[in-house]
Amino acid sequence: MISRKMKTSLQFLVLFVTINRVESSCKDKCVALASYTIWDKSNITFVSQIFSTAIPEILSYNPQITNADIVSAGAKINVPFSCGCNDQGFLNHGFVYSVGSEDTYSVIAETYFSGLTNVDMLRRFNSYDDLNLKSGSQVNVVVNCSCGNSRVSKYYGLFTTYPIRRGENLSTIANDTTISESLLRGYNPGSNFLNKDLVFIPGRGIDLTITSDFSLVNIELFNIVCYIHR
């Protein structure tokens, strides 16, 4: 039988393939969001540093945060980042993380970057021995993203890269975001929507003037933001 770890690795590999196949063009560039879960020793300053994103910019996507110095562990926040095509033909953003003492690929991927990447991705884009990372080394952290696909829907333009947490699945995400399961599947072909899978959640209409149902699009965005921040 295939182990859970191997399944997760294969799902990330499938994501590479499907991103390249589903996107109409890998020339796309856009702003994307990363769904990040605050952990007990992290704060907005830490998130700002590892994503190289200014605190005011992060706060602009998180209206629920009234005090940047007080964000509870377990809270989900949106972190904006630029999404573009790399030389291997899929949409992503490459962050650079400076290794600290006792850091491992597992800690970097699962804790510091909140499951937005995984150990196999770090191994793929780095030559370091993950069992002997030297303090001060610069690790490439590649996070997948989406700029949408007009063949699925033309009414969405802001996508959240979302690591599925324990207890979540396609049905719970569809229910909490009011995005249909079929639409979520359309943007995430090949995903089983299991714990630790990485999926893209559509958020904002590209052009609210192109549909008379623009108020519905706004409502869907509001619901998605509320869900991601739970």
Give the helices and strands as they follow along the chain: HEHHEEHHEEHHEH
- Order of strands in the sheet with most strands: 4-3-2-1-5-6
What's the average pLDDT? 83
What's the N-to-C terminus distance?
35 Å
Q: In which range does the helix fraction lie?
A: 25-40%
Spatial shape: globular
Annotation, overall tally of beta strands: 6
Structural class: alpha+beta
**Please, how many helices?**
8
Return residue spans where pLDDT drops below 50 for at least 5 consecutive residues. 13-24, 205-230
Query: How many structural domains?
Result: 1
Produce the secondary structure layout.
Blueprint: H1 4-22, E1 30-37, H2 44-51, H3 55-60, E2 76-85, E3 91-98, H4 105-112, H5 119-124, E4 138-144, E5 158-163, H6 170-177, H7 181-187, E6 198-204, H8 214-228
Parallel strand pairs: 1-5
Antiparallel strand pairs: 1-2, 2-3, 3-4, 5-6
Question: What key attributes describe this structure?
Answer:
six-stranded mixed beta sheet; alpha+beta; 20% strand; disordered C terminus; 8 helices; 230 residues
Q: In words, what does this structure look like?
A:
Strands 4-3-2-1-5-6 form a 6-stranded mixed beta sheet. The chain has one domain. The chain has helices at residues 4-22, 44-51, 55-60, 105-112, 119-124, 170-177, 181-187, 214-228, and strands at 30-37, 76-85, 91-98, 138-144, 158-163, 198-204. It is α+β, with helices and mostly antiparallel strands and 230 residues long. It starts with a helix and ends with a helix. The longest helix is centred in the first third of the chain and has 19 residues, at 4-22.
